[in-house]
Amino acid sequence: MLSTTKMKRSLPDAKLDAVFHALGDRTRRALLARLADGPAMVTELAEPFRMSLPAVSRHIRVLEKARLVARNVDGRVHRCSLRAEPLAGIQQWLNHYRHFWEGTLDSLVAYVEHSKHE
Amino acid sequence: MLSTTKMKRSLPDAKLDAVFHALGDRTRRALLARLADGPAMVTELAEPFRMSLPAVSRHIRVLEKARLVARNVDGRVHRCSLRAEPLAGIQQWLNHYRHFWEGTLDSLVAYVEHSKHE
DNA sequence: GTAATATTTAACAATATTGTTTAATATCTA
DNA sequence: TAGATATTAAACAATATTGTTAAATATTAC
User: What letter would DSSP give residue B12?
Assistant: First the structure.
């Protein structure tokens, strides 16, 4: 059984603020979607967008502050990668509300089981 | 099986923008938490906060725009209630990333099964 | 060493957000 | 009708966000 000390608690407000704020911009969500396919350098990340490189650079910074993106500097190249932990955090937050849109836990199980078969 | 036409697609960018933005403020999240316990009028909702009533009123408006709150006007009283559909929408969005923080679909099933037994 | 490349910083401008206080509106109540 | 109640609207101020362009930095390549 789950001990009290091991029970995950919700992210603190400040973290939720940062993560939800970071996700509240479609450019940043697109960056995350790109990073879901694997790490990329800043220039690569910026390429698909109409906006300037500095603009994208700062979007990346916002994602970094929310810890949704990690950066590994190698020479002049900054390689960015997705960090999904904060998403697990908002998943937990969401769980408090799940029963409002899903009938029962069983329906979730059914949903997941189903999605395994495509 | 799921037909293509019945497959849920992700919320459009504009909706995700609105929902994530609405959730990116701790006051608004607290309002939602309160509404999870049942509908409430604006004054009730505002009572726990240090800020002015008009300020809370506008937070509610933001939640309404994101369709996270519905309002039922009855005389001079506006009764607000939680609308969780947009949360299901961000749940769907999250699902695209779930495999980054959970091992496999099986582990999710195990998790949910487990949580049924406390 | 000079030039090209990768990225950030700086300096601005345009908007958006958020909170305040003071009306304005509408609805009950006595 | 007069006053209390519930709520929004208006007008502001402070700050934050987001994008631009023009440097500044650091690193690699020739």
Answer: P
For A38, which residue in chain B has the nearest alpha carbon? B100
Reported as a single tens digit per residue, the pLDDT across A23-73 is 999 999 999 999 999 999 999 999 999 999 999 999 999 999 999 999 999
Give all domains of chain B, ordered by start, each with its CATH number.
12-116 (1.10.10.10)
pLDDT of B5: 46
CA distance B105 to B103: 7
Q: What is the mean pLDDT of residues B33-37?
A: 94
- Which residues of chain B have a Cβ shorter than 8 Å from any chain A Cβ? 2, 13, 16-17, 20-21, 23-26, 29, 32-33, 36, 82, 84-85, 87-88, 90-91, 93-94, 96-98, 100-102, 105-106, 108-109, 112-113, 115-116, 118
User: Could you tell me which residues come within 8 angstroms of residue A22 by beta carbon, excluding any fewer than 6 positions away?
Assistant: A28, A62, A63, A65, A66, A68
